[in-house]
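Customer ticket, subject: "Can you confirm the structure for GDP-mannose 4,6-dehydratase?"

Message body: Hello, I'm evaluating your service for our small team and ran a test protein. I'd like someone to confirm that this is what the system normally returns, since I don't have a reference to compare against.
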Amino acid sequence: MTKKAFITGITGQDGSYLAELLLSKGYEVHGLIRRASTFNTSRIDHLYVDPHDPTAKLFLHYGDLSDGVRLVTLLAEIQPDEVYNLGAQSHVRVSFDEPEHTADTTGTGSIRLLEAVRTAGIRPRFYQASSSELYGATPPPQNEDTPFYPRSPYGAAKLYSYWITKNYREAYDMFAVNGILFNHESPRRGETFVTRKITRAVAAIKAGTQEHLYMGNLDSVRDWGYAAEYVEGMWRMLQVDEPEDFVLATGTAYTVRDFLRISFEHVGLDWEKYVKFDERYLRPTEVDALVGDPSKAEAKLGWKATVQPDQLARIMVDADIKTLECAGTPWIDKVNLASWTPEAVL
Ligand code: NDP
Ligand code: GDR
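Agent reply: Thanks for trying us out. I re-ran your input and got the following:
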C-alpha cells in the first residue's frame, strides 16, 4: 500500500525538502497551501506533476491553519498515514510585530490540526515542528531535558505547540512527536533570515549590484545545519516504535559575525567594508546562544548532521551566485535525499 503524508507548510523551506524526500520514498504527498494573489509555490514547482497525469503523486489543497473545519474535511478525505505540521509564522523578529497572528498560526494552529486528526477519526503519526527557540534564555548546550525559557511571541507560541503535542500523546495515546530543531538553512531559506540575507547580499555585492548590507546583532551564537539533512531526521522520528521528542542540531557554535566573515571570504571580500548597523533588526529580547546536543537522535535514530556551518555558508553563497546568473530565477539545489546516510548528503 502506498503511504500517504499530509504536510502543512509545504511551500516553505522545510516543506519543499520533506515533500521531495517523501516522494523519493514512494509516498503520495498532500500539501496544504494558502491562497495568495501571486503564486507561492516556487520551492515545490520542480516537484509538481499535473494531477490529471496518472503518475502524479503530489497533491496541493487550499487551506489555512486558522481554519479548523477545513483541516477536518481535508484529513477525513485524505486519510494520511503521517501528518507533518510545519506551517507557521516562523520569523522571530516579525513575531514581535504580529504577536497575535503568530499565536494564532504558530500556537493555536497546532491544536486545530491535532483536533482535526481526532475529529476526522484517523490515527496518523504526527510530527510537530518544535524549535530551539523554546530554550531562549537557557544557556547551551541544550538537549531534550533542558528547561525552556522562550524569549519572543514566536517562542511562546511554539512552547504551547510543544506541550499540546505532548499532551495529545499522553491523553489520547497518539503517536505525536516534537522535533526540536536548531536553525537549519539552505539555498531555499527565506530571504529575510540572517544566513540567506547574508549570502544573497554577498552574491549581489560581488556582482556589483549592491553596496552595503544592514544588519542587527552580530554577537548571537547559533547552531546552523543544512535543512536537506534535517527533513530526514523528521521522517525518522515517525518510523521508530515509540513516540519520543528529539533534538536535531550540528552541535557547533558560530556567531552571526563568523557567518558573515566566512561568506564574504568565500568570494574574496572583507565583510567589514560592506556591513553597516541598523537597529531595526534588533529584537526587544534576544536569544543569545543556541547550541544543540543531538546525541539522542544519533543514538536512537542513527541521524547525524554532516554539513557544518562553514560549508553551509559556502553552499548558500554559491547558490545565490547561480541564482543571479539565471537572472533571478531561484536556483534549486539538487540533493540526493533518497540515499541519505549520516556519512554523505551531497
Ligand atoms: P518557512 O517560513 O520557510 O515556511 C513556513 C510555511 O508555513 C510556509 O509554507 C507558509 O506558507 C506556511 N504558513 C504560514 N502561515 C500559515 C497558515 N496560517 N496556515 C498554513 N500555512 C501557513 O519555515 P521553515 O520551512 O524554515 O520551517 C518549517 C517549520 O519549522 C516552521 O514551523 C518553523 O517555525 C519551524 N522551525 C524552523 C527552523 C529553521 O531553522 N528553519 C528551526 C526550528 C523550527 P506560505 O509559503 O504561503 O507563506
Ligand atoms: P532565528 O533566525 O531568530 O534564530 O529563528 P534569524 O536568522 O532570523 O536570526 C538569527 C540571529 O541573527 C541575528 N541577526 C539578524 N537576523 C535577521 N533575520 N536579520 C538581520 O539583519 C540580523 N542581524 C542579526 C538575530 O538577532 C538572531 O540572533 C530561526 C527561525 O527559522 C525560527 O523559525 C526557528 O524556530 C529558529 O531559527 C530555530
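A couple of notes from the result: The chain is about 40% helix and 15% strand. The first helix runs from residue 13 to 24. Feel free to reply with more questions.
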